[in-house]
Amino acid sequence: MTSKGGLLCIDIGNTNIHFGVWMDNHWRVSWRARTVPDKMADEYAVLLRNFLRSDRVGIKQIGGVAISSVVPALNRTFAELVTRYMHIEPLFITSKTKMGIGIEIDQPEQAGADRLVNAAAVVALYRAPAIVIDFGTATTFDVISSANAYRGGAIAPGINLAHDALVRSAAQLHKIDLKAPPSAIGTNTIHAMQSGVFLGYVGLVEGLVTRIKSAMEERDPIKVIATGGLAPLFQQSTPLIDLIAPELTLEGLRIIYDMNN
């Protein structure tokens, strides 16, 4: 059962911080802000208050906070924010947190909190076996076995990271829209870049998913679930993605919070 009042879920990523408030059995509000590691707790508090106020949610309506973070420099900042302004002890997700899954990797403490949270959400909402593709700063592929265990996966540079590196390193190349070109054979620089960057990335996704499925050796069908801002764009370009779950990490935070309260 979720905490009395609203549950604030915070997913701190390398590029963005995703906030969501679960209230009255639905996601009342959801926003994203840039990740700024040296921003102070008071500055994030102002931002959070403004977000809440814009959706007519008072900070005193928050009864619980769950946080996943891959930016250690911000952990203390958000702990201070929550305890000072909400008088709540936040739940930070680690490999030792009860989350309804096994963790079958060499060093569980090295697993990104967001990856474990996504695995917990998949087991609770969609059932395993499954592969989660998270299109963020990095593109991660996470494997959940039919025994509801997180087995690891793969980490690749995110498509925006690859695109920016190419533009930064090649004097005659400029930023493009990340979308499929008319043909895999580019007849101008923009379409050639879209073929190499976007379709090349589709090839990366399809190749890794195919290899991961083979390595899983599961008898049951393996769902491929995508999350992250660019997930819908990739779903249109490959048949291997079964469904899009845009709030997957927030859902996992909500589920894990309930398990621990």
Description:
This protein is of the alpha/beta class and 261 residues long. The chain folds into 2 domains: 6-92, 2-Layer Sandwich (Nucleotidyltransferase, domain 5); 102-246, Nucleotidyltransferase, domain 5. 36% of the residues lie in helices and 25% in strands. The strands form 2 sheets. A 6-stranded mixed β-sheet has the order 6-9-8-7-10-11, with helices on both faces. It has a 5-stranded mixed β-sheet with strand order 3-2-1-4-5. Helix 6 (231-235) links the parallel strand 10 and strand 11 (243-244). Helix 1 packs across helix 2 and helix 3 crosses helix 7 (248-259).
Order of helices and strands: EEEHEHEEHEEEHHEHEH
> Could you state the oligomeric state of the chains shown?
single chain
- CATH class of the largest domain equals Alpha Beta
SSE-based structural type: alpha/beta
Q: What's the CATH topology label of the largest domain? A: Nucleotidyltransferase, domain 5
Please describe the biggest sheet, giving its number of strands, its sense, and whether it closes into a barrel: 6 strands, mixed
Net shape: globular
SSE diagram, text form:
Layout: E1 6-12, E2 16-23, E3 26-34, H1 41-54, E4 62-69, H2 75-85, E5 91-92, E6 102-103, H3 113-125, E7 130-135, E8 138-144, E9 149-157, H4 159-169, H5 189-216, E10 223-227, H6 231-235, E11 243-244, H7 248-259
Parallel strand pairs: 1-4, 4-5, 6-9, 7-10, 10-11
Antiparallel strand pairs: 1-2, 2-3, 7-8, 8-9
Helix pairs in contact: 1-2, 3-7
Give the gist of this structure:
By secondary structure, the chain is of the alpha/beta class.
